[in-house]
Amino acid sequence: MEYTNKTVLLKNGKTCLLRRAEERDAEMLIDYLKITSGETRNFVREPEEIAITLEEEQEFIRKNREDPRALHLLAEVDGDFAGSCSFAPVRERSRTRHRCLIGISLYQKFCGMGVGTALLSEILHYAKIAGYEQAELDVVSANAPAVGLYKKLGFETTGTIPHAFKYRDGSYADFLFMVKKLV
Ligand SMILES: CC(C)(COP(=O)(O)OP(=O)(O)OC[C@H]1O[C@@H](n2cnc3c(N)ncnc32)[C@H](O)[C@@H]1OP(=O)(O)O)[C@@H](O)C(=O)NCCC(=O)NCCS
What angle is formed at CA 52 by the lines to CA 42 and CA 37, rounded to 5 degrees? Predict the structure, then answer.
């Protein structure tokens, strides 16, 4: 969907630019997916499981940009790419058209300075403009910064999946389902 760039002042005094992802960002976003997947155990894929080609990523970004019911925002802090946040339909069926799915992640070095709050607040605002009635996500229950951010912005826990992830060391992580009403 359409988006007009926005600048936000972070709590550390740095400037954060929010802008829509464009096809020219594809290579940067593939690198980011690989690096952030290695920085945290909170994502579904191991870094080597990310096998997206440049063309696939460009096509994904283009479709997202042209979809009036989807938005993929990037955050830049002092000109450096810090992370991204998006919404997209849970599923394009008449009975589920009121629900959108949220995704967010930052490079580790940009965590804790308010970028997540800036990105997610903006995404929720635009999800409402796009006509969604509720925003949904799932999150590793032990991911305190993420759960803290979601609760701060009005998400409520509606369910859990025990042992949603099984790591290579044999340990497990549970998931929380979280929902925020937009109307
Ligand atoms: C989760 C993530 C997006 C949060 O973004 P962020 O920029 O670090 O968060 P913010 O600095 O805006 O903090 C937002 C709120 O989260 C909460 N929070 C942050 N760190 C926290 C922590 N360690 N423990 C508990 N709550 C925490 C606070 O309520 C904070 O608000 P406040 O600073 O006004 O008190 C970011 O840390 C990240 O990308 N992590 C790695 C990837 C990831 O886990 N993504 C989510 C997958 S579902």
Answer: 20
pLDDT attached to residue 92 = 86
Residue ranges, the chain, pLDDT below 70: none
Residue 177 lies in a domain: no
Ligand 1 pocket test target in 149, 175, 178, 179 with most atoms within 8 Å of CB: 149
Give Cα separations from 33 to 13, 48, 151 (angstroms): 27, 10, 25
Ligand 1 centroid distance, CA of 112 (Å)? 6
Residue 183 domain-assigned?
no
Ligand 1 center to residue 132 CA distance, Å? 24
Alpha-carbon span 135 to 66, nearest angstrom = 20
Separate counts of helices (H) and strands (E) for the chain: 4, 8
* pTM of the shown model: 0.96
Position 157 in a domain: no
Count of domains observed in the chain: 1
Residue 125 lies in a domain: yes
**Residue 55 belongs to what domain range?**
6-135
The pLDDT value given to residue 130: 97
